[in-house]
Amino acid sequence: MLQMELSPTFHNEVGVPIVRIGCREFKCIGDKPPQDHPHIYLKMGDASEIVCPYCSTLFRFDPSLGAHEADPADCAYGDRD
């Protein structure tokens, strides 16, 4: 449970087709609150990308980014809930 609380959190408020992120396990919230969808924990495993089943955002792993970083940078959600 503690690991999930520390998971990087991402959203796609800007509506880009692909969000590149620096981790393979994370939480997607869709949009910034209060327009967020149910918070879902996603795990890519060995894959290089995953689609959120709620908002259909394609998240692609990019090893050049830090665990809590995204491209576009605005897609990283800094507040912890």
UniProtKB/TrEMBL annotation:
Query: Record's superkingdom?
Result: Bacteria
Q: Where is the Zinc finger CHCC-type domain?
A: 24-59
Gene3D superfamilies assigned to the protein according to its UniProt record, in alphabetical order: q5lls5 like domains
Which InterPro entries has this protein been placed in? Znf_CHCC
Pfam short name (any one)? zf-CHCC
| Protein name, entry field | Uncharacterized conserved protein, contains Zn-finger domain
> What species was this sequence derived from?
Bradyrhizobium ottawaense
